[in-house]
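User: Could you check the structure of this?
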Amino acid sequence: MNKDHVFTKNMITENAGTQMDPLTEKIKHQTEGRPFSIHHTNVEKGNKNALYIHCHSELEFFYLTEGELDFYIESNVYHIQTGDAILIPSGLIHYARCASNGGTTCSFDAVVFSIRMMIDALPSYCGKYFDSAICNSMTGVCCLTPDTDWQNAVIDFLTGIFDYDHTSIDKCELIIRGRLLSAWQLLYNNRYSTQIAKHYARPIYPLLNKCINTINSNYMYDFSLADLAAASGLSKGHFCRVFKDVTGFTPFGYLNRVRIAKACGMLTSTDKKIADISARCGFNNISYFNRAFKQIMKKNPSEYRKNFQSIT
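Assistant: Sure, the predicted structure tokens are below.
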């Protein structure tokens, strides 16, 4: 079930081949049909880039076993050291660079999983524990360090999962699911319960999720603010306030990053012209598309396509 990665300057070697998702990251995060996967990556000395820029619809626990990284999630940067971990909510663009500028080796483990794996295994009244994960939210990012007791306990649950990376699924599946649930309970107790209370009331999450689903499914259309607010059933003023508070983005900022993520998929899975991709993703102006793409992805569209081709 393990998916090992070895990063060199211009190549990624994977020991287990996977089907490619045409929209986001080119790895299918499943283990023998289960909605999770475990990865181990070694980054060789001399390589500045530890994790290429991508996003996926699953959540991810990332654990640094060796080295120091600058971990980029959207526009935020998190410096993590050996023994630290970080939770990346679904749908957020992220990548990592070696803090030593490639001067040393580093390695990390990750478990990537669908939140539905936990929600569907529990009775409906337990849904409140996962409200913070429903919206693709920057506020859900959580850095974990062994210096804090409850965070160290979460890390212990994670490292226990990684111990099973070479074990057949039928001998460890329930343990992995149980450890993820135990880790999530600690996150809820110490982080997300107070976060949910801050965000007005629990019902706001499913309302905003309606709008987020509308954007994710219809990103190519020309939305107005009134359209987006109506999708959530909120007034425009209230909608703008709570959308930014819960997700960390303005409504149109979120729409733009969804469009850019879709464009990344087309750039890497098709040979369509950049102008065509821009139009298909809802951008009426190619110059604006190029500026928005570079702001989010740190490269222009042609550079991004060329860089992806060099590592596949």
